[in-house]
Design brief:
Elements lengths: L9 H4 L3 H8 L3 E5 L4 E3 L7 E7 L1 E7 L5 E8 L3 E2 L1 H6 L6 E3 L4 E7 H10 L1 H27 L2 H16 L4 E3 L4 H7 L4 H11 L4 E4 L2 E4 L2 H8 L3 H4 L9
Antiparallel strand pairs: 1-8, 2-7, 3-6, 3-8, 4-5, 4-7, 9-11, 10-11
Helix pairs in contact: 4-5, 6-8, 6-9, 7-8
Length: 235
């Protein structure tokens, strides 16, 4: 996957050349291997991280050591700008599941730039708004749907995102997907088994969608929860 160019990053598009130069003067481009931990929950941000290529998984951890996947973020997102702007501890751990590249902007420089440049502030507000809406959709998904509906709608959304209406390839381990959906690995497997009667066929990490309309009827996808209105079930 090619790196996102700096010109295409939403936070830079509206900046003048001099403002961008100031912001990037001491910034770093940093590539990391799968499994890299970018920061732990409880740490204070040293940098604003911008995903140029790849993705980041955000995990919440309890005092007893229980861990859940909260969200997966992809290029060209900002990684938890709320903590950077507030100078507050991260509430989650960030881990990299695939080869990824980041732009690292010193936190103090980033805060100062946001405070003094209205166009950058506007772009950051846009990023925060998108992240807030993703979190609200996630909460609605957890509270309004059964585990089977969550899994089915996840498959439909993933299929739309991957551009493959007849199948999906699970992007990471089933236990992590189950954690992201707020269920156990066992509940995830049971949901897949139930959905095999409603239009899917499980083949390891690849899942064939045999009857998309039947799957959608069973799971009731909703663009106000799933973040897309393109489920490919209207043909």
């Amino acid at each position: 996957m090619a790196d996102t160019t700096l010109d295409s990053l939403p936070i830079f598009r509206a900046l003048t050349a001099s403002k961008r130069e100031d912001l990037l003067r001491n910034a770093l481009r940093h590539s990391v291997a799968p499994g890299t931990i970018l920061f732990e929950q409880g740490e204070k941000p040293n940098f604003q991280l911008v995903i140029l290529c790849g993705s980041v998984q955000l995990f919440g951890q309890s005092a007893e050591g229980r861990e859940v996947l909260i969200e997966a973020m992809r290029a060209p997102d900002l990684v938890i700008p709320a903590a950077v702007l507030a100078g507050a501890p991260y509430l989650m751990q960030a881990r990299v599941p695939e080869p990824s590249t980041f732009l690292l902007i010193h936190a103090g420089v980033f805060r100062e730039a946001v405070a003094t440049d209205p166009m950058l502030a506007h772009a950051v507000i846009g990023s925060l708004s998108q992240q807030f809406r993703r979190m609200v959709r996630q909460i609605k998904n957890l509270k309004l749907r059964s585990s089977t509906q969550r899994v089915g709608c996840y498959l439909l959304s993933l299929s739309a995102r991957q551009g493959t209406p007849d199948n999906v390839v699970l992007p990471y381990e089933k236990n992590l997907i189950a954690s992201e959906l707020g269920i156990t690995r066992e509940s995830f497997s049971r949901a897949l088994s139930r959905l095999e009667r409603s239009g899917i066929k499980v083949e390891g990490q690849r899942i064939a969608i045999v009857n998309r309309l039947q799957l959608a009827t069973e799971c009731a996808p909703d663009p106000l929860i799933d973040g897309t209105d393109d489920f490919g079930v209207g043909d």
